[in-house]
Amino acid sequence: MFRFEFISVRLMLLGMSIAVGAAVAEPAKAFDINAGVTKESGPFDLFKFGFKAYKNGQKEEAVEAYKYAAEKGHTGSRWALANMYADGDGVAQNDFEAFKIYSEIAQQGVEPGSEDTGFFINALLALANYYKHGIPGSPVKIDLNQARQLYFQVASTFGVAEAQFQLAQMMLAGEGGAPNVLQAKKWLNQARKSGHPGAMSVFGNILFQEGQSIRGLAFMTAALDKCASKDCPWMEDLQEQAFSLASENDRRVAVSMAHQLDVAGNE
Question: In sequence order, what are the residues at sequence separation of 6 or more whose Cβ sits closer than 8 angstroms to the Cβ of residue 189?
Fold first, then answer.
């Protein structure tokens, strides 16, 4: 399963992980009484042990520790375990098992300002992706309406650029509801202001199609400097198609304007 990479949440979780790593100075040992951590230990101690074991490549021990901590309600352990199942990392790949754990995190909810906010957001995005594509051979079928609702929740409540981008894409395609270009442009504009390259590219393409050739082409061109390798091909296609249709003067002005856009995509 593809797990979304969005900077704000990843930085939050990375910061937490660094803090945990600093708190555990000793190398991870086998998961037994000699390690000072057992299944009866507190959830945070189990999580710290699991994290250190994972970092040391002892993924079976990490899974065991995360499972015990998750049973005791530790959200970070649930999240880590779900990711391992989703990626087949240290365990057999199992999207349905990951889906069930992400669902537990989502159902648990989160208090405003909680340190678990990043895990909650990531779980909602993972669930949205599962509902958008379904999980073959499982009870989880494609539910575009549910996917769109989850993206809307994350986009509106937490302002996550990836959710805003995915929501806009569904609105443009009429997935999970009626097409709504105006609302899609609003979400794309917000996401591209947060520096989301895909949103900047699609936003620019819409502007180009609406007749704002220079501005639209400038955004599509600027987005190419920020795209991830997996997204560059389709973004390059959009930009090249527009470039071939634009006049020589519009191309020149657009390229100049693209260089003037700041890192967040603002003019």
Answer: 199, 203
Q: Find the range with the poorest average confidence among 32-41, 125-134, 172-181, 192-201.
A: 32-41
3-state secondary structure of 250: helix
Contacts with 46 (C-beta within 8 Å, 6 or more apart), sequence order: 37, 39, 65, 66, 68, 69, 72, 74, 77
At 169 the three-state DSSP class reads helix
Residue 145: CB atoms within 10 A of its CB come to: 12
Residue that has been written with the tokens 């649930």 in this structure: 78
pLDDT digits (tens, 9 = 90+) for 64-88: 999 999 999 999 999 999 999 999 9
Q: Which two tokens stand for residue 153?
A: 């929740």
Letter string b/e over residues 219-234, b meaning 16 or more CB atoms within 10 A of that residue's CB: bbbbbbebbeeeeeee
Summarize pLDDT for 165-200 with one digit per residue, the tens: 999 999 999 999 999 999 999 999 999 999 999 999
The angle subtended at Cα 126 by Cα 39 and Cα 112, nearest 5°, is 75
Max CA separation in the chain (angstroms): 73
